Amino acid sequence: MTDHALDTIIQSxxxxxxxxxxxxxxxxxxxxxxxxxxxxxxxxxxxxxxxxGLTLMPGIIDVHTHYDAQITWDNTLSPSSSLGVxxxxxxxxxxxxxxxxxxxRETLLRxxxxxxxxxxxxxxxxxxxxxxxxPDYLDRLEDIKPFANVAxxxxxxxxxxxxxxxxxxxxxxxxxxxxNRMEYLVDEGLEAGAIGFASSFSPxxxxxxxxxxxxxxxxxxxxxxxxxxxxxxxxAFVVASGPRAHPEYIEGMLNESGCPAFIVTVLAMHNxxxxxAALDYYEKAxxxxxxxxxxxxxxxxxxxxFDFSLENPYPFFAHSAFDEIKKSDHEAKSQIYKSKKFREKxxxxxxxxxxxxxxxxxxxxxxxxxxxxxxxxEDAGVDPLSWFFDQNIKSQFIGKLFQxxxxxxxxxxxxxxxxxxLSDAGAHLEFLCDAGFGLYFLSHWVKKRNSFSIEEGIKKLxxxxxxxxxxxxxxSIEIGKFADxxxxxxxxxxxxxxxxxxxxxxxxxRMVRESSGVVGTWVNGTRTKDESGLLLNATGPGRVLKEFNx
Length: 550
Description:
Elements: E1 6-15, E2 24-31, E3 34-39, E4 45-50, E5 55-58, E6 60-62, E7 85-90, H1 105-115, H2 120-126, H3 134-144, E8 149-155, H4 156-164, H5 176-192, E9 196-200, H6 220-233, E10 236-240, H7 247-254, E11 261-264, H8 277-290, E12 295-299, E13 304-308, H9 323-326, H10 330-338, H11 340-350, E14 366-368, E15 371-372, H12 373-380, H13 384-389, E16 397-402, H14 406-413, E17 418-420, H15 437-448, H16 454-461, H17 463-468, E18 485-488, E19 494-495, E20 499-501, E21 510-512, E22 515-516, E23 518-523, E24 526-530, E25 533-534
Parallel strand pairs: 1-4, 1-5, 6-7, 7-8, 8-9, 9-10, 10-11, 11-12, 12-17
Antiparallel strand pairs: 1-2, 2-3, 5-18, 13-16, 14-15, 14-16, 18-23, 19-22, 20-21, 23-24, 24-25
Helix pairs in contact: 4-5, 5-6, 15-16
């Protein structure tokens, strides 16, 4: 029993504390930004929250987001802050916005608009450039006072652009001076408080005018040199790997450095066309872990679907037939699609199952108006490829390409090298919204399928992530930990269908989801959400995280 007045008591609540221990009913007391007592606490507090029949969990930690630009004009980190997320990691895939000299701002944002499916005009008009260096960027994030805690990765493509300019996507070899400066920027970022260093070798990552994102063309010499800075500070390495940076490659790169590595790749996502490939990839990661290098895979618990058109057919960009498409305007694309030469080239591409490609000929998984195009092509008496390229260039297709077989995906989510992630929150705004990945996991995998107990499921979304990313004093409901909390009704927990809203700068639109069942969220002891929605103030209680348990 506490003997002093508390700021908040959440009373008579089912506590699932994130550790995996069995739940219990009791009170949770908050003073300032910390949890200071758990038990039967009475009612001596400023804010008493009656929570009988509800469940309390630690806030969800989302380590794969792309809020780097949006946070400069939207400190709420919408929609994640409404979906149970209390901590985010930005800068994933190496696509941040700092450091960035003024001369490179347009190049950087235009690349970002393509590779992460963002509205170019919204980025150009909305991004607030009151920084140039990575330390300055972290300082400005603190000034913004976000609604969730933020940790930032320093990105390979970003620093390549800062040093090499537009040539970063063209010239493979930097000069020795350029490489020295890049290494300095990684050191500077880590010293300022970056949680780690991020890169991408993915063939699906193309930027403006179809040029490759800068890091994807970097040599082994360059990446190993930049990793040496990471080893000195001992922080996380996060990579969109593609076929190149397989687990054994990363093992050789980090060689017992003590730096945990996190892989993001479609090679580790289930695809029915190659049903054993993803689990085999996880097993390779496990073998590397057993030899001493800590390595995890970002595992998305939701089906990975792609909303696209022939105007922006990014799921096909790994295939050489689309090299010309990536750098063509609207009219030129229309003419190319009609040509026999292009179609024959793409047929030839599909005869070679290309590892790391998003699409390898699974036409039955592409839908128009919820109907598979294989059915539409059959009705028209033509093959799917011919039918597809005869369609209007603006027609919106859905590609349900990965993680759509629950029995197979369950094996991946339960694998010891899986880490629940990959919401891509803040990116692909016109196509999808998976910012509610945590609530989806709890409603689908815990409540609907019973694949995990409520204690196991919440641990996977909270303490498991905090421990592996070395995030201090978060991820569990324990005395002395920060009061990042989510209060919810288990019987009504979930996310809405996609909703279109027109609230981006320059009149841009985005797709969002809303939560159901979440009745309260606290960040560092301050309530940010109740039953009515976000409690919008000018400032939020989130912190910029700069110190970690490495």
